[in-house]
């Protein structure tokens, strides 16, 4: 299994294809395993690298793993690029991964050639979305009890709906539930979407993220998740937005994504 010690954590990763780097960042909970079909298709446009974030799937976590901050997640992504010898990348992030990708571009703009943000979890864009996220945070913590897996399941049920959760293959449900400890560490940390102190970006912050950006929402996602996209599209200077069918698990290799990435990596 390929892995790289990056930012003090052993991160599992996979690379598909050749050429300019395309970095995929998964949401919470999730794993690079769920990105493999998309990574293969993105790998026709460059070297698509997907990895398990700290505490998820096949990657390690520092012990004790009680908290993790957005800064940790951004530093992991940058350190992985360093270990792979990649100065820059097109960064594709879904949900919490989109939040991490956005902050990577905000704090390290020289590392980002372009952004694809699939319903990024920046829940401080307006009061209604912020209130929804606070309610979800409370619900997840209440559901956890002594079993961190319940935290992961609660997040997915809200984002995807109970019916979608029940339709998932048993092994996929277990993979998602296995990320419960990392979900709780993110909730207890700073900067991430369900933290008590989530990331806030001002209008000036957004205006400074001057990289080509594609924002994608899904027609059947919960309204708070969909609302983030037009809010960001109005603040990012080089953003375009698209709406695709389906729910929150937007395909990272959807045709609109492939076309956007192709324009950057292949000119």
Automatic annotation (TrEMBL):
Gene3D superfamilies assigned to the protein according to its UniProt record, in alphabetical order: alpha/beta hydrolase
TM segment ranges: none
Swiss-Prot/TrEMBL keywords: Hydrolase
Keyword Hydrolase: yes
Coiled coil: none
Gene source species: Jiangella mangrovi
InterPro entries on file: AB_hydrolase_1, AB_hydrolase_fold, AB_hydrolase_sf, Peptidase_S33
GO MF annotation, one: aminopeptidase activity
Family: Belongs to the peptidase S33 family.
Single Gene Ontology BP annotation: proteolysis
AB hydrolase-1 domain mapped to chain residues: 20-249
Protein name as catalogued: Pimeloyl-ACP methyl ester carboxylesterase
A single GO cellular-component term on record: membrane
């Amino acid at each position: 299994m390929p892995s790289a010690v990056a930012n003090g954590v052993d991160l599992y990763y996979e690379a598909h294809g050749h050429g300019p780097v395309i970095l995929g960042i998964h949401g919470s909970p999730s794993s690079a395993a769920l990105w493999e079909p998309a990574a293969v298709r993105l790998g026709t446009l460059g070297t698509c690298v997907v990895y398990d974030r700290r505490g998820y799937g096949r990657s390690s976590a520092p012990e004790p793993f009680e908290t993790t901050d957005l800064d940790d997640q951004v530093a992991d992504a940058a350190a992985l690029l360093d270990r792979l010898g990649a100065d820059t990348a097109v960064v594709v992030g879904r949900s919490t991964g989109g939040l991490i990708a956005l902050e990577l571009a905000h704090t390290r703009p020289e590392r980002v050639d372009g952004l694809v943000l699939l319903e990024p979890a920046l829940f401080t864009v307006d009061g209604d979305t912020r209130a929804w996220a606070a309610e979800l945070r409370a619900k997840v913590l209440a559901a956890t009890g002594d079993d961190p897996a319940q935290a992961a399941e609660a997040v997915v049920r809200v984002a995807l709906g109970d019916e979608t959760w029940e339709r998932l293959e048993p092994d996929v449900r277990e993979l998602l539930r296995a990320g419960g400890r990392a979900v709780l560490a993110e909730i207890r940390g700073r900067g991430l979407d369900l933290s008590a102190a989530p990331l806030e970006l001002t209008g000036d912050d957004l205006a400074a993220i001057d990289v080509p950006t594609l924002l994608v929402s899904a027609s059947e996602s919960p309204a708070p998740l969909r609302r983030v996209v037009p809010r960001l599209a109005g603040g990012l200077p080089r953003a375009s937005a698209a709406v695709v069918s389906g729910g929150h698990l937007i395909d990272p290799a959807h045709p609109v994504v492939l076309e956007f990435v192709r324009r950057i990596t292949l000119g």
